[in-house]
């Protein structure tokens, strides 16, 4: 087959991962904004073919959503959220 496998999990140990993508593309866009508002962890690996093995998993990437309290740091002084 070949290609890539992308997984997301709620914890860095990937105790209950969800496979988001299996295929040849090197780009993936989360289908819903709600998913991006959750604290999540991601990893990817190259999937082997008939003549090769799967690669090891990548380093884990942590996605922390922007909190409303953090929004204030993006505004100029004197502005309010």
Describe this structure in a few short sentences.
10% of the residues lie in helices and 27% in strands. It has 81 residues and is mainly beta.
What do these coordinates show?
The protein has a 4-stranded antiparallel β-sheet with strand order 2-1-3-4, with no helix packed on it. The protein is elongated and about 45 Å long. Strand 1 and strand 2 form a beta hairpin. The C terminus is likely disordered. The protein has one domain. The longest helix has 4 residues. It is mainly beta and 81 residues long.
Summary keywords:
mainly beta, 10% helix
Molecular shape = elongated
Strand content: 25-35%
Number of strands: 4
Helix content: under 10%
Structural class: mainly beta
Question: How many domain modules?
Answer: 1
In sequence order, what are the helices and strands, one letter per element? EEHEEH
SSE blueprint:
Elements: E1 4-9, E2 18-23, H1 33-36, E3 40-46, E4 61-63, H2 68-71
Antiparallel strand pairs: 1-2, 1-3, 3-4
